[in-house]
Amino acid sequence: METIPDFLMPEKWYDVKVLKSAKDAATAMTYRAHYDATVKAFTALGMHSKAKTHAARGSGARMAELAGATESQIRRLGRWNTSAMEDRRTFVLERAVHVPPDHLQHEVFPFVENYMAAYMKKSAYHVAKPVDF
């Protein structure tokens, strides 16, 4: 199992990639590996999409719209041009909201309780120390 970085010390996790190479957590996954994994997942789920690695790109814009963002805010934040916004074909598939049981949440994210306790006491490194810009 992969080691969870120490979230109380930013220098321990700032370089960690979410989509990382198999050998090094600080090295990004290659485009080809990302593409192949996405195609494999879509195939397994019986999904068909013209977009592969960017299939979810529009979801942020849809969520922003549902949260009340204006069209100009969505365009600016998403770097959408006018034609992309006009042809957005916004739609949402409603999904049931299921909150996993506490034991499963703790199994998946065992570090969160310790981090949140430190954060609330303002002893987390990046909360307790002023940042120089």
TrEMBL record:
This is Ndc10 domain-containing protein. It holds the Pfam family NDC10_II. Residues 4-86 form the Ndc10 domain. One of its GO terms (molecular function) is DNA binding. It comes from the Eukaryota.
